Amino acid sequence: MAETDTTYFRRGLGLKAEVKPVLESEYGSRLVEAIKASGHELQAGRFTFRMAHSLGFCYGVDRAVEYAYETCRKFPDRRIFLVGEIIHNPHVNTRLKEMGVTFLYPDDDGMFDFSKVTTDDVVVIPAFGVKLADFEALRDLGCILIDTTCGSVLHVWKRVEGYARDGFTAIVHGKYYHEETRATSSQVLKHEGGTYLVVRDMDETRIVCDFIRGKIGRDALLDRFEGRRSEGFDPDVHLQKVGVANQTTMLASESLEIARVIGEAIADRYGEQELEDRFRSFDTICSATQDRQDAVMALMQDPPDVMIVVGGYNSSNTTHLAHLCSQSTRTYHIESDRSVDPARGIISNRSVQDGEVHEQADWIPDGEITIGLTAGASTPDSLIGRTVERILVSEGLKPGEVLAGMSRSS
After folding, report:
1. How many Cβ atoms are within 10 Å of 260's Cβ, its own excluded?
2. Taking a C-beta distance cutoff of 8 angstroms, is the pair 393, 21 a contact?
3. Of the residues 66, 179, 180, 335, which is catalytic?
4. Greatest distance between any 2 Cα atoms in the chain
5. Strands, DSSP E only, in 239-298?
6. What is the pLDDT of residue 283?
7. C-alpha to C-alpha distance for 158 and 160, rounded to whole angstroms
8. Exposed e or buried b per residue across 268-289, where buried means at least 16 C-beta atoms within 10 angstroms of its C-beta
């Protein structure tokens, strides 16, 4: 878009200085800052808290929230719509609703209804981006667009578009229903004949590899990937040349392994000499996702007694952090500080095993224990800090006194 376009904004609205104090007040935490300054550890009573060295808001999320706040300040007299959720954090989304932002939610097929949007309205595109067709529809409406699509997501889009341009089918490792994966897959449509296929995990990848090797027929593959492939997808034609990409918040190790086994299948089918002309792969996991996963793995070298993972239950990167932690220690994935109830001594958490939310009593072991802390890239420091405070209160400790003691010792 042209920099002089007054209906499309992608680099902010020039109000960063005005909204910064508000954002710091609502989403910052003095306690989290103090823990980081103390080597990412806090000793309080019988608790030793160990905080992952990379956690919470990433640059892309921070930027998206900042732009949304700038939008509310820039256009106080206009209706402001948001396509889906700005990020996968209920606390942040609730605040935007309280500020008057109207959320537009998709139907079960991922389709948005923009019939209420007029030329006079403002529409915010979330950090995940939107499908190509949705972006074009909004541009045709002539409304003001605030595009907060994350730069890491745009990087994947360029890869996927390049695959389509060169006649390769994009195999996207992601959750087919996720906003980002839908948006990424749609980028192949910029080129006539562009095709895609979405694989969720290694099990689905093996099905694709079985077809490539000639072990299963086309109907079995088409049936399994109904709703997860481009219109008119023909596996006999479209799996001859493939390029692998991924939703930026998936497990990096799994994405790399998926690319490896698909490459092996192509080599088995067509020969090693054909691999360069028939297979492409790039590591498109975002650096923030990778940093948070690496920080958790470092923490698991000496696992804490209990691990707390803070973040939205529909946050992909948060659920992957919980999965990684659960392989080494007792792990509780909580949505916010309110998931910890000091009065009743329970914690409400989403099980890594069955995906259901459960209440757990007596979740803190007796004696001196170590509690690990991490948070998804869409989790503000405020929720992390208040989670620690609630755990302290459950032990009869006063957070204010703990923070004051840290300040004196620093």
Report:
1. 13
2. no
3. 180
4. 70
5. 242-246, 279-281
6. 77
7. 6
8. ebbeeeeeeebbbbbebbbebb
Q: What residues contact 167, with CB distance under 8 A and at least 6 apart?
A: 193, 241
What's the pLDDT at 3?
47
Q: Which residue's entry shows tokens 């590591």? A: 283
Tens digits of residue pLDDT in 130-156: 999 999 999 999 999 999 999 999 999
User: What is the predicted pLDDT for the residue at 410?
Assistant: 61
pLDDT at 282: 83
Confirm whether 180 is a catalytic residue.
yes
- Domains defined for the chain, CATH in brackets: 26-58+288-409 (3.40.1010.20), 59-149 (3.40.50.11270), 152-285 (3.40.1010.20)
Distance (Å, whole) CA 235 – CA 15: 50
Q: Which two tokens stand for residue 74?
A: 């820039």
Q: What are phi and psi of 331, to 5 degrees?
A: -125, 135
Segment 36-50, tens digit of pLDDT: 999 999 999 999 999
Residue 7: name the closest of 118, 132, 94, 168 by CA.
118
Report which residue type is found at 329: T
- Residue 2 above 50 pLDDT? no
